[in-house]
Amino acid sequence: MLTIPRGKSVRFVNNSGGKAMRVGSTDSANIIYSAFNQNKTVGSGGTYEYTFVDKGTYSYSNKNNTVDQGIIVVQ
Questions:
Q1: What span, in angstroms and rounded, lies between the C-alpha atoms of 69 and 66?
Q2: Taking the CA atoms of the chain, what radius of gyration do you get in angstroms?
Q3: Are the CB atoms for 12 and 23 separated by under 8 Å?
Q4: Which residues, in sequence order, are CB contacts of 21 under 8 Å at separation 6+?
Q5: Which uninterrupted H or E stretch holds 31?
Q6: Which of 11, 37, 49, 55 is deepest in the core (most CB within 10 A)?
Q7: Which tens digits make up the pLDDT trace of 8-66?
Q8: What's the rounded Cα separation, in Å, for the pair 39 and 42?
Q9: 3-class state of residue 73 by DSSP
């Protein structure tokens, strides 16, 4: 779990050594999460950055490998 202040950006880096990465919310019912979803897959070494403007708890996973997951708490 990562805790950050509102307005801070988080950079997700694909250090998998070959697996594709596409970060996405695991809570599809919440509208706040839809803007958080990464639009395109990136390969090894690729990045995705998102600025969290709303307070809340964001659970996410790598949509290409759902074992990769985490939580970001925005205060």
A1: 7
A2: 12
A3: yes
A4: 12, 14, 38, 41, 42, 43, 46, 48, 62, 64, 65, 68
A5: helix 31-34
A6: 37
A7: 999 999 998 889 999 998 886 666 667 888 999 999 999 999 999 989 899 999 999 88
A8: 10
A9: strand
